[in-house]
Amino acid sequence: MHLISRMSQRTAARRGRLVSAIFTAATLICLAPTSHVDAGSVSERRTCATASAATYTVAPGDSWSSVATASGMTTATLLDANGATASVVLHPGDVLCFPNGIAWPASTSQGGCAAKHVVVRGDSWFGISRAAGVSLNGLLEANDATATTVIRPGAEVCLPAGSTPTTTAAAATARSCVSERAVAAGESWYVISRSTGVPIDALVAANNASRSSPIHPGQNLCLPEVGFGRDLPSVVLDAAPVSGACRFANSWQATRGGGRLHVGVDLISPAGTAVVAAANGTLTRQTTDGARSGNAWWLTTSTGTYFFYAHLASFSNGLSVGSRVQAGDVIGSVGSTGNAVSPHLHFEIHPSGAGPVNPYSAIWMFGGCNYDRRFEQTPLS
Ligand SMILES: [Zn+2]
After folding, report:
1. Which end of the chain is more exposed for a tag (fewer CB within 10 A), N or C?
2. What is the rounded distance in angstroms from the CA atom of residue 139 to the CA atom of residue 133?
3. Which residue has the higher pLDDT, 54 or 43?
4. Which residues are close to ligand 1, an ion, with C-beta < 5 A?
5. Residue 157 and residue 269 in one domain
6. Same domain, yes or no, for 189 and 161?
7. Is 351 exposed, middle or buried (0-12, 13-18, 19+ CB in 10 A)?
8. How many angstroms does the Cα of residue 285 sit away from the middle of ligand 1?
9. pLDDT tens digit string along 305-327?
10. What is the whole-number distance in angstroms between the Cα of residue 224 and the centre of ligand 1?
């Protein structure tokens, strides 16, 4: 640890000298930072050499490429204007210099509202900007707001030109904190980033922090996106499919016997653990002797989306095809019936009754089942 931190200080010192050298050797837009450069970071405040050059304050979720794209220049041009390389990490609050003649943002500052978004519980400026596919700054400007302006459910937010119309579900799934994670003793940003699969820059930005910000055991951190798979789920669950001790991995499309690919995710749990309805719906089909699935339920929601639950040890008393269930209702128990080598729930999601999609992100996002890489390719069936 000591060695690493000393090395990065040396690297930072070298980078600082390099930046100064570049600035004296070439006519660039920006002057060298007046304050110190911390390891891997752009300095907090910059003086741009040309008075007319625009500056931009980095917001959570920004990257060199997103800022460059939104303002109509190449990433190389932006890096050059700041004497930086792509490996320099941007932190919210960093000030960037733009080359002469380029202002932020290129297209979203004019044009008024292209569309409106009605704020729902859990929305944030960042989440709405993600769902609408626009930059956070473009969104804030279109609403005369800052990142700290409070938005309340029911309020209308103006979406600038170039936005994708949002739906309530899209905004909800893209909100900046998809879950929380309590810090354990001895954990660092790096450790949490690795254990959750959330990139460290996204993690620190979502917590309005930098990599050097201290974190304390017991502190609740915002996890801004789905780890590992990182694709946002097309179906949001209202309950975890297994209620109890549970481990899972992204076993979607893992190879299975007979040349098959796995079209669900396996939730590993002791036999007898409660299997629950992931959403309100109706039990539409049941098998008790599936060669592969063993005891299985099909649970269909009002939108036609259905969930497939296989390998159950038992079905809950009183339930049959046609029974209505609520999210969280126990519908059976974990087992290993059918083609299963050990107790687990095989879980599939079929949006609108169509082919299966990867349920991994939906399960990860809901929480309640712990990620365990060992089950990525374990052929449980
Ligand atoms: Zn399976």
Report:
1. N
2. 10
3. 54
4. 264, 266, 346
5. no
6. no
7. middle
8. 18
9. 999 999 999 999 999 999 999 99
10. 28
Q: What is the structure's pLDDT at 328?
A: 96
Question: How close is the Cα of 251 to the center of ligand 1, in Å?
Answer: 8
Q: In this predicted structure, what is the pLDDT of residue 334?
A: 98
According to the model, what pLDDT value does residue 316 have?
A: 98
Which range marks the domain in which residue 205 is found? 179-223
10 Å Cβ neighbour count for 14?
Answer: 10
246 with 162, same domain? no
pTM over 0.90: no
CA of 197 to the centre of ligand 1 (A): 22
What is the pLDDT of the chain when averaged over all its residues? 76
β-pair partners for 138: none
Q: Is residue 38 part of a domain?
A: yes
CA of 198 to the centre of ligand 1 (A): 25
Domain count, the chain: 4
Q: Clarify whether residues 50 and 147 are in a common domain.
A: no
Looking at this protein, which amino acid is placed at residue 115?
Answer: A
If you measure from the C-alpha of residue 380 to the centroid of ligand 1, how many angstroms do you get, rounded to a whole number? Answer: 6
Which pairing describes strands 247-248 and 370-371: parallel, antiparallel, or unpaired? Answer: parallel
Q: 82 alpha carbon to ligand 1 midpoint, in Å?
A: 50
Are 102 and 130 in a shared domain? no
Mark whether 274 and 367 lie in a shared domain: yes
Residues 250 and 184 in one domain: no
pLDDT of residue 48: 65
